[in-house]
């Protein structure tokens, strides 16, 4: 981020604009939404700017900017439609101590003006650092359509009521009150009876919430999917928005953690390769103790929480402690990875069953029904299969599997740095070790990338090793 978004206090302060043409007018339209004193310097001014001055909305001084004119100004816009004049006035305003923006000159500006969605006091600022104004406009149009026109009124009346809501305990109950107001009771009352009804609505709502007992804590076991935030379920997103505490594993991607409520307590219980860095018992303890303090706990696990996630131990801990819980399913790594291959997990005439197997379990490399897996057409998604690849390869070959059976390894499935390694059972090792994959990887035994997926992957030599 080269530009950090902030909101600057301008009430009663000076904002100075140099210019009297189109560029200046475009900025004035935005600036007049504020409570600042806006002053324009320009020898010549267009009729609309003259009209604003006549109406007393701006102060217009009909001469070019001189030293001292931008004194005490918070912000200064060089908007002369003339690069040389802009450079001259920007220097003067800078010397006067104002923050300077040169219209259409990102490099010479100390700040830039975002696209704005105005539901005062709710203001949305959209910036692309000058990279894509079209994108900013599209996002603005989208938000304009989505945010009800009455939102500003709801927020203004709500703001005046904030002190009263301190009667509710800090945290979940206050949040529940405001959610009720902004998304249910408020819009309903505003639509039915207008602004005048809102104060009464707030009073009635507060009484109702004060009468409610404290909600007990609860735990949601949430599947975070394979890493791409777009592969989260809507339920998972909602849980992250509402959580008081998020307890997450190492494989949950940073983009997904970003979606958690800003005030949520984030607890990393990341496990590194073999052996946990936080013991399972400690994790169980954390979940239960937060829930007992009436927190809404989101236990975030990569992929689907029910697949190789030690979910049952955590559920048992909740049950023993009398804590209520629910499970929000997620997209497991196998589903994301097979989509990358352009294949399906099951196929008529090839495999009518698919196995999810783990490369290692509590005792070490995991044993499976190798004889059955060695049959032609079998498909297995092997989780945690990097270190155990040689073991699995040896077991399958020993049980008569064809060395030419396709094997695909997908690293970082669904993430920007996803790679695909297409090989065969006979060559799985040393191919996999040589590839030295650093990210989480899932191995498909019995599946090759479809031709199109393979062609797409060959662009990068690292992605393919046959
Ligand atoms: N509950 C998870 C699995 C946890 S076990 C799920 O449903 O996906 C951890 C293993 O999952 C990793 O060793 C790797 O084999 C696999 N895995 C998780 N995320 C992955 C990803 N984005 N790409 C490839 N494999 C992944």
Question: How is this structure best described in words?
Answer:
It is a single chain. The protein has 466 residues and is α/β, with parallel strands linked by helices. It folds into four domains: 14-113, Rossmann fold; 151-211; 218-331, Tetrapyrrole methylase, N-terminal domain (Cobalt-precorrin-4 Transmethylase, domain 1, 3-Layer(aba) Sandwich); 334-463, Tetrapyrrole methylase, C-terminal domain (Methyltransferase, Cobalt-precorrin-4 Transmethylase, Domain 2, 2-Layer Sandwich). It is 36% helix and 19% strand. The strands form five sheets. The chain has a five-stranded parallel β-sheet, sandwiched between helices. Strands 10-9-11-8-12 form a five-stranded parallel β-sheet, with helices on both faces. It has a five-stranded mixed β-sheet with strand order 13-16-19-17-18, sandwiched between helices. Strand 14 and strand 15 (364-365) form a beta hairpin. The chain is extended. The protein starts with 13 loop residues before the first strand and ends in a 9-residue tail after the last helix. The model is unreliable at 458-466 (pLDDT under 50). S-adenosyl-L-homocysteine (SAH) binds at residues 226-227, 251, 301-304, 307-309, 332-333, 337, 383-384, 410, 412-415, 440-442.
């Amino acid at each position: 981020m080269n530009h950090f978004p902030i909101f600057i206090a301008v009430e009663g302060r000076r904002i100075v604009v140099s210019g009297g043409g189109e560029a200046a007018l475009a900025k004035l339209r935005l600036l007049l939404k504020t409570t600042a004193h806006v002053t324009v310097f320009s020898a010549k001014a267009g009729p609309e700017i003259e009209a604003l001055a006549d109406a007393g909305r701006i102060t217009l001084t009909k001469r070019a900017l001189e030293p001292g004119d931008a004194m005490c100004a918070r912000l200064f816009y060089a908007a002369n439609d003339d690069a040389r004049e802009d450079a001259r006035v920007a220097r003067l305003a800078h010397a006067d101590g104002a923050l300077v923006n040169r219209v259409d000159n990102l490099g010479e500006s100390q700040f830039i003006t975002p696209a704005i969605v105005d539901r005062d006091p709710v203001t949305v600022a959209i910036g692309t650092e000058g990279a894509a104004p079209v994108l900013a406009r599209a996002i603005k149009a989208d938000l304009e359509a989505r945010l009800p026109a009455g939102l500003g009124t709801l927020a203004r009346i709500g703001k005046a009521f904030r002190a009263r809501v301190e009667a509710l305990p800090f945290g979940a109950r206050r949040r529940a009150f405001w959610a009720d107001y902004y998304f249910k009771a408020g819009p309903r009352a505003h639509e039915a009876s207008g602004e005048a009804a809102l104060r009464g609505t707030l009073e009635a709502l507060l009484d109702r919430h004060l009468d409610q007992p404290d909600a007990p804590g609860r735990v949601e076991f949430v599947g975070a999917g394979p890493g791409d935030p777009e592969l989260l379920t809507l339920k998972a997103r909602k849980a992250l928005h509402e959580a008081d505490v998020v307890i997450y594993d190492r494989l949950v991607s940073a983009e997904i953690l970003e979606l958690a409520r800003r005030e949520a307590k984030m607890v990393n219980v990341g496990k590194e390769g073999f052996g946990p860095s936080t013991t399972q018992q400690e994790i169980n303890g954390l979940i239960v103790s937060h829930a007992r303090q009436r927190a809404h706990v989101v236990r975030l696990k990569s992929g689907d929480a029910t697949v190789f996630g030690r979910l049952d131990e955590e559920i048992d801990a909740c049950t023993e402690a009398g804590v209520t819980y629910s499970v929000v399913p997620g997209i497991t790594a196998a589903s994301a990875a097979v989509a990358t291959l352009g294949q399906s997990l099951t196929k008529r005439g090839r495999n009518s069953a698919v196995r999810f197997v783990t490369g290692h379990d509590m005792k070490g490399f995991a044993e499976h029904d190798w004889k059955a897996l060695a049959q032609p057409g079998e498909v297995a998604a092997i989780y945690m299969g990097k270190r155990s690849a040689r073991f699995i390869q040896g077991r399958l070959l020993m049980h008569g599997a064809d060395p030419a059976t396709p094997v695909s390894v997908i690293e970082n499935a669904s993430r920007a740095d996803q790679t695909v390694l297409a090989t065969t059972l006979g060559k799985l090792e040393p191919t996999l070790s040589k590839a030295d994959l650093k990210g989480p990887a899932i191995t498909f035994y019995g599946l090759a990338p479809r031709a199109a997926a393979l062609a797409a992957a060959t662009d990068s030599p690292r992605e393919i090793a046959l």
